[in-house]
Amino acid sequence: MKKLGLLPKLVIGLLIGIALGKIGLEIPIRILATFNDIFGNFLKFVIPLIIIGFVAPGIGELGKGAGKLLGITTGIAYLSTILAGSFAYLINSLLRNNFLATTGLGNIALENPEHALLSGYFTVGMPPLMDIMTALLMAFIIGIGISLVNGVAMKNVMGEFQVVVEKIIGNIIIPLLPLHIAGIFANMTYAGQVETIMSIFARVFLVIILLHISILLIQYFIAGIMSGANPLILLKTMIPAYLTAIGTQSSAATIPVTLAQTKENGVNAGVAEFAVPLCATIHLSGSTITLVSCAMAVMALNGMPITFAGMFGFILMLGITMVAAPGVPGGAVMAALGLLETMLGFTPILTSLMIALYLAQDSFGTACNVTGDGAIAVMVNKVAGFKLNKIKN
Questions:
Q1: What is the pLDDT of residues 343-368, one digit of tens each?
Q2: pLDDT tens digits for 270-304?
Q3: In terms of Cα–Cα distance, which of 247, 251, 244, 245 is closest to 327?
Q4: 161 Cβ contact partners less than 8 Å away, ≥ 6 residues apart
Q5: Does domain 6-383 sit in CATH 3.30.2450?
Q6: Residue 159 burial (CB < 10 Å; 0-12/13-18/19+)?
Q7: Angle at 197 between CA 194 and CA 198, to 5 degrees
């Protein structure tokens, strides 16, 4: 079991949960519900710590670099992320009333009413040390302070704290997620909700993949216009990076391949070596598409209002909070948990559904991210005053 990747484990947990729900044994389902209550409270406790551990070091690192070129690259990456999220909102809004339409969950809410989902035997309160907004403000202040003061001590402290947070995610949250997912789907199957949810999940997954392909075509079309190169040839050259990211689920682990293929596209070596590692931490167009699409699907399932004003604010904040998300599977969605709670009103159950849906295609979002990094490198290459070297056939 240890040799299996996260996705197979999640699928196994989901299937076991559905099987338990179909059998209808109340005791094991309530035991899982008890675990879910405790695990959900733990998630609420660590969310502020995750925000500080991710965002503060990430912003601190952005304060150093190549001056003007750093600002240009960061601006292009952030704009790409925002446009990708807005594009995802637009397409999902157009599809919501037909392709993604659902009959709804009736009078069954995704909480724990006695007439629908089974409640646990007991729970353990774990009040967070601070609320989400306080954590965000602290992260911004600490991160900006590190970049302005160039303080080594504070930077080292936050760097080590980020490692602690990554360990919590990698050694506690991620390993327990399959059991958490099993409990959620066992309870939802018992309450008769799972067919509707799984139907929507399958359709959302298809939409997300198509959105990834579309945004990559747009990014390389713009890069091609700026550089005077054929966008399809540029994109084709980056396919090895895309496939590598699917296998590794990590932008950082894919950097060597992304860098090699970017140079193969004719980008100046110095520009490529600067832009690709930077974009691996700040350019998250694929992850943003996935988070926006998944969030809208979960909100639609629960009958929550979806407005452009609310979602656009969420998208703007995503581009900041996901900066330097760690290389563990699901880093982006973990960094976004606080925003889901404060800006979109997600409950612990909805957050868990969001994690499950996001992680099911995390590798494809990462692949979209790193492939898009190549397009940004081409744009930065042009802004820096370089022409593309002759592309090898």
A1: 888 887 788 778 777 877 777 888 89
A2: 888 778 877 887 888 998 999 999 888 888 877 78
A3: 251
A4: 52, 53, 57
A5: no
A6: middle
A7: 80
